[in-house]
């Protein structure tokens, strides 16, 4: 199944409740345009490679979306207007399940796991 992988970084100073509200708003935006968030993952708070909007840390989130261009366009519009979003990147992928499995394998066995355990 083709789709999109969308990674976005939220402001680390936002409260837990504000983050949940923003995530739900993003899910609702995708759903309102006929799209679907197939899988989502939160990476948590991580140090940024360089300061972004005067922030050294960010809270990373990952959405796997079905192939719905209208939903993607609406989601990226929300990213632009939401002040709690520091950065985002969306790429088209050919196989959602394969990419998600690769990510989970990296998270449990690979570089992501090693960073968390240190």
Q: Ends: how far apart? A: 35 Å
Question: What portion of residues is helical?
Answer: 40-55%
CATH class: Alpha Beta
Number of helices: 4
Instruction: Tell me the major beta sheet.
Output: 4 strands, antiparallel
Low-confidence residue ranges = none
What is the β-strand count?
Answer: 4
| Structure classification | alpha+beta
Proportion of beta-strand residues: 35-45%
Q: How many separate domains make up the residues?
A: 1
Order of helices and strands: EHEEHEHH
Rg over alpha carbons: 14 Å
CATH A-level architecture? 2-Layer Sandwich
Read across the widest sheet, the strand sequence of neighbours is: 2-3-1-4
Task: Please identify which CATH superfamily we are dealing with.
Answer: Ribosomal protein S6/Translation elongation factor EF1B
Mean pLDDT: 88
What fold name stands as the CATH topology?
Alpha-Beta Plaits
Outline type: globular
Which descriptors apply to this entry?
single chain, 118 residues, alpha+beta, Alpha-Beta Plaits, 4 helices, globular
Write the layout of secondary structure elements.
Elements: E1 3-10, H1 16-32, E2 37-52, E3 55-66, H2 69-81, E4 85-93, H3 96-109, H4 111-117
Antiparallel strand pairs: 1-3, 1-4, 2-3
Write structural notes for this entry.
It is a single chain. 43% of the residues lie in helices and 38% in strands. It has one domain (3-117): 2-Layer Sandwich (Alpha-Beta Plaits), CATH 3.30.70. The model has no long low-confidence stretch (mean pLDDT 88). By secondary structure, the protein is an alpha+beta fold. It is built from four helices and four strands. The protein has a four-stranded antiparallel β-sheet with strand order 2-3-1-4, with helices on both faces. It has helices at 16-32, 69-81, 96-109, 111-117, and strands at 3-10, 37-52, 55-66, 85-93.
């Amino acid at each position: 199944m083709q789709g999109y992988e969308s990674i976005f970084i939220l402001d680390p100073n936002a409260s837990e409740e504000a983050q949940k509200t923003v995530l739900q708003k993003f899910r609702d935006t995708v759903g309102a345009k006929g799209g679907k968030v197939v899988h989502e993952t939160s990476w948590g708070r991580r140090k940024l490679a360089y300061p972004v909007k005067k922030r050294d840390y960010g809270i990373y989130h990952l959405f796997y979306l079905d192939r719905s261009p209208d939903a993607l366009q609406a989601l990226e519009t929300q990213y632009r207007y939401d002040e709690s979003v520091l950065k985002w990147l969306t790429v088209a992928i050919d196989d959602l399940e394969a990419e998600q499995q690769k990510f989970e394998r990296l998270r449990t066995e690979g570089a992501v796991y090693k960073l968390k355990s240190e």
